[in-house]
Specification:
Order of helices and strands: EHEHEHEHEHEHEHEHHEHHEEEHE
GO molecular function, one term: metal ion binding
CATH architecture of the largest domain: 3-Layer(aba) Sandwich
Keywords: Cobalamin biosynthesis, Cobalt, Lyase, Metal-binding
Shape: globular
CATH class of the largest domain: Alpha Beta
Largest sheet: 5 strands, mixed
InterPro entries: CbiX-like (IPR002762), Sirohydro_Cobaltochel/CbiX (IPR050963), Thioredoxin-like_sf (IPR036249)
Protein name: Ferredoxin
Pfam family, one: 2Fe-2S_thioredx
Structural class: alpha/beta
Number of helices: 12
């Protein structure tokens, strides 16, 4: 008996580097340049795609690349993990998994905190010190690391961590973090606060990939500060650009994805845990997508004998939130009793699965039924029989348990 050999024309692996996308072609070209550098470093094909504002889109790029490789690793070219990294890019990967059965998809982490990036920032500071004629060993040099700012506290927290890592072991007077928008502290107020200590020099580091509008705004702010405070020399560095240390970080993220060792900071993610001030940020759309992906993956076929792993899509998909607060309220028991109730029912074509946070912390356990888009809240193990017998078997909604309908 001979074994069927893989198509030798296919690449074993390929990488899709996903940038944000910009109306400025220079920014889009930077993504393509980094993709080319990464391809040279890894010796595997690397293409570029964009979340918005530029072509190709992630979906189009995957459609083009998937037939040419056995495994595709999608790596977001993003400094921190905010909504694009946590929502948009993973959703595109999920869609791809549902429609490209012959390709294995891996999802890499964002750039995040990496020693190579800390070294790059230190080098950027040294260049500004040289321009200003100061030396951190002999002069009081303060550094302000300025990032874009996000509505995601997890992302903003990493900016502060990066600033601290830059400070550790170096002769800076202080290293502060600031933001150019969205959140606080803003760059202007941080610079004014730093000036009160009357350092010899202040170095502003725009923590940006490209030389775009926000980077220009940071540089302008540093120049204005330099004019307003004549007793402090101030200057700003350029962005990270296409430096080889950015490529090194991307290469590590690729290797992590290949080995299955990607780590995300779920313990501080507003979509996973209840954070004060972010209670209204809902992540329930992912539960709906999970249902849709499952249905697309197992769509009705006229002849399933061609693929023994294919089965007809279930009539309903039930997602039970088993995240922190729901778990504390007995979600695991609700999940298992729903599964047992479905197994025991005479006519109940339902798939029951656990879900991550549905964004309704404090009102759980939450049970979401799709495609009906009905969410039940405060579900107890005693309620599971009614959900199965009334809703799942007879399409009669259990009205007194309804938390919301979408």
């Amino acid at each position: 008996m001979s074994l069927e050999r893989p198509d030798p024309a296919l690449d074993d692996d390929a990488v899709l580097l996903v940038g944000h996308g910009s109306r400025r072609e220079e920014s889009n070209e930077q993504v393509r340049t980094l993709a080319a550098k990464l391809e040279s470093k890894l010796s595997v094909p690397v293409d570029a795609a964009y979340i918005e504002l530029a072509e190709p889109s992630i979906d189009d790029a995957i459609e083009s690349m998937a037939p040419t490789c056995r495994t595709m690793t999608v790596v977001p070219l993003s400094l921190f993990a905010a909504s694009h990294v946590k929502n948009d890019v993973p959703l595109a990967v999920q869609r791809a998994r549902a429609t490209h059965d012959d390709t294995e998809f891996r999802f890499g982490s964002h750039l995040g905190i990496h020693p190579s990036l800390v070294d790059l920032l230190d080098e950027r500071v040294q260049a500004v010190e040289s321009d200003l004629g100061v030396d951190r060993e002999d002069d009081d040099v303060a550094v302000v690391l300025c990032a874009r700012g996000s509505s995601d506290p997890d992302s903003n927290g990493d900016v502060h961590k990066l600033a601290r890592l830059l400070y550790e072991g170096r002769e800076f007077t202080r290293v502060e973090s600031a933001f150019i928008g969205v959140t606080t502290p803003r760059l202007e107020e941080t610079l004014h606060t730093v000036a009160k200590d009357r350092p010899d020099a202040v170095v502003v580091l725009p923590y940006m990939l490209g030389d775009g509008v926000l980077t220009g705004r940071i540089v302008d702010t540093a120049e204005t500060f330099d004019e307003e405070y004549p007793y402090v020399d101030a200057g700003a560095s350029g962005p990270l650009g296409t430096d080889d240390r950015v490529v090194e970080t991307l290469a590590d993220r690729y290797q992590e994805a290949r080995s299955g060792s990607v780590e995300m900071s779920c313990d501080t993610c507003k979509y996973k845990v209840e954070l004060a001030g972010y209670e209204d940020d809902e992540g329930g759309a992912r539960a709906m997508l999970r249902s849709l992906v499952h249905q697309a993956e197992h769509a009705d076929r006229s002849d399933v004998d061609d693929d023994p792993h294919v089965h007809d899509a279930p009539e309903k998909h039930v997602a039970v939130c088993t995240n922190q607060t729901c778990a504390a309220s007995g979600a695991a028991t609700v999940l298992e009793q729903l599964r047992q109730g479905v197994r025991d029912a005479d006519d109940c074509d339902v798939h029951v699965s656990r879900s991550s946070c549905l964004g309704q912390c404090g009102d759980g356990p939450i049970v979401a039924v799709y495609p009906d888009s009905v969410w039940y809240g405060g579900v107890t193990p005693d309620d599971t029989d009614r959900i199965v017998s009334s809703h799942l078997e007879r399409d009669r909604i259990v009205s007194n348990l309804v938390h919301q309908s979408l």
